[in-house]
Amino acid sequence: MSGPHILVIDDDEGLTELLAEFLARFGFAVRAAAHPEEGLRALRADPPDLVVLDLMLPGMDGLTVCRKIREFSRVPIVMLTARGDVMDRILGLELGADDYLPKPFEPRELVARIQAVLRRGALPEAEESLRVGALEVSWATGSASLDGRPLPLTTAELTLLGLLVRNRGRILTRERILDETRGVDWEAYDRSIDVLVSRLRQKLGDDARRPRFIRTVRGTGYRFIGGAPEDGGAGDE
């Protein structure tokens, strides 16, 4: 099959068989790994286009697996979590997951989230790269660099950075960022965007209290301010 390749790391073999059959209807080729180490070996040997990762795994939980994946790969990760475990979802996002889906879920929703994450990694039509001072975002290579040093960004982080840079100086609401970076509705009171911005700030070496790149607009969203620190102390406007 020539469609996107999905690696499912989940010890529920009945579920993975159903997912493989269902995802095949949408052109996806699915491989399954029941154990974390098996999944990590499969990812290294033949990198997929996306990983579906269960939180509850034997021997090593999904958060640890997510962290280990991010040590060597930027592959998009959709994490499956237990319903109501908000902190697990936040931790997963902080460790580099691109999206999450609480169990039990409708398979069609998983397809929608996979498609949305993969779309975020596609090249935008308008430009192949953008540069602001020492920061460069390149969609031609799917990468970003600061002061000539590559930034280890996930797909979601690169998409967010590109969105902020393309809208330099404009205030982007959390709703706009959700719409542009997720493609599907997340829970209204989720901290997903704030976690994603925090992750991006850490990798940019940005201080929220005296921002060089991303300024918080209290109660609204965020604004990309360029490459020089703003005076005035607090990052909130």
Describe the structure.
This protein has 237 residues and is α/β, with parallel strands linked by helices. It folds into 2 domains: 5-120, 3-Layer(aba) Sandwich (Rossmann fold); 129-224, Winged helix-like DNA-binding domain superfamily/Winged helix DNA-binding domain (Arc Repressor Mutant, subunit A, Orthogonal Bundle), CATH 1.10.10.10. Helices cover 37% and strands 22% of the residues. The chain is built from 8 helices and 12 strands. The protein has helices spanning 13-24, 36-45, 62-70, 86-94, 107-120, 155-166, 174-181, 192-204, and strands at 5-9, 29-33, 50-54, 77-82, 99-103, 129-132, 135-138, 143-146, 149-150, 171-173, 214-217, 221-224. The strands form 3 sheets. A 5-stranded parallel β-sheet has the order 2-1-3-4-5, with helices on both faces. Strands 6-7-8-9 form a 4-stranded antiparallel β-sheet, with helices on one face. Helix 3 links the parallel strand 3 and strand 4. The chain is globular. The termini are far apart. The model is unreliable at 183-189 (pLDDT under 50).
